[in-house]
Fold this sequence. Notes:
Blueprint: H1 14-23, H2 27-55, H3 61-83, H4 96-114, H5 121-133, H6 138-162, H7 169-219, H8 229-246, E1 250-257, H9 260-267, H10 269-286, E2 292-297, E3 300-306, H11 310-327, E4 329-330, E5 335-336, E6 339-345, H12 352-368, E7 374-376
Parallel strand pairs: 6-7
Antiparallel strand pairs: 1-3, 1-6, 2-3, 4-5
Amino acid sequence: MVDGQSGVAPTRGPWAALGDAVLGTGAKQRIRVAQAGLALLLMLVGVTVMQYVAWQGAAPLAPVQVWTAFSLGGLAFAFVAIRSGWSRRFADPSLAVPQMVYAIACGAWAYTLAGPMRGAVFPILMVILMFGMFSSTPRQMRWIALYAVAIFGAAMAAMAKLQPQRYPGDVELGHFLMLAIMLPAVSALAAQLGRLRERLVRQKAELAEALSLISQLATRDDLTGLANRRHMLDLMNKERQRSMRSGAPFCLALVDLDHFKRINDRHGHAAGDDVLRAFAREASATIRASDALARWGGEEFVLMLPDTRAALARQGLERLRQRCASGLTAGAAGERVTVSIGVTEHRAGETVEQTLERADRALYEAKAQGRDRVVVG
Length: 377
C-alpha cells in the first residue's frame, strides 16, 4: 500500500509483521488461525492443571506425560494444518468440530487419570464447549453434547468398575447426572447463540444490500441506468485531477437526441422513455470500457473519453452516431432517431465547466448545420 501524498509505502511495525507471520494475512484465515491458537492455549492450561495434579501425587506421572504429549500434539497438528492452508480442502477449514471432539476425548482421558482431583476436568470441559458455541452450528453442538455425555459416562463407568476405591460408583453416578443435565443446557444455549448469529448474518446481508441500493440511487439515473449528473461531475473532476498530474488528455462530448420533443408529441412520453433507454443501450455497447456515459438531463447525455485526443474521439463518436442512425427508432412506425454531438478536448488550466461550455457550443453548431453529425469544438 502506498501513501497517496508521499508516494512511499508506510512502514509496518514489528508487531504487525509478527502477527502476519503467525496468523497469515487473509482476514478469514487470520480468524481461523487465531481460533486454533486459542484452542491450543486452552489445552495448555489443561496440561498445566494435570501437571499440578501429578505433582501433588494424585495422578501417576508417566501416564500424565503421555497424555500431555498426545493432547498438545493433536491440537498443535490442527494449528499447523490450518496455518499452512492444508485444512482448506475440507468443508470447514477451521476444523472446529474435530478439535472439539479431540479435546473432549482428551478431557475424558484426563478424568481417568486425575483420581481425587478429577473435578478439575469439568471446568475445562465447559470452556471447550463454550469455545465451540461461536464456531459451530446448533445441530453440531447437540451432537457434541451427546458425544461428551457418552464418552465421559463411559469413562466414569469404566473407572468405577476398575478402581472403585478411587472412583466410587455413587460419586461417579452423581458426576454423570450433573453432566447429563448441564451439557444439554449448554447445547440449548449454543442453539440460541446460533440463531442470533444467523440473524446477525442475515441483517448484515440486508444492510449491505440496502447500502448498495442507496449507492446506486445516488449515482445512477433511474430511467436509463447510466451515471447521473452528480456522479458524472465527480468523475470528470477526478479525471481533470488525473490529467493535471499525468498530462494525459481527455475529451468531453455532449450528445443530444434530435427532435426529441417531436417524438414525445407524436408517440407519447412512454415511447420517448423507450428511446432514451434504447440510446443508453446502444451507446454503452459502442463506447470503450474506460469511457464514462451519463444522462445529463432530459434527452442530453455526456460522454467522457479518457486518454483520448479530439481526432480519435471524433472517430469513436462517428461510430456512435452511425449506430444510432441505423438502429434507433421511435413508435410503432419505427421513426428513425438521430443524434447530434459536440465534442472538445480539455485544455490545461480550464475547469470541467469551461470544457463543457465549449462542447455545448460545438453541439449547438452541429444542430445549426442540420443535426445528425459530430462537430469538434
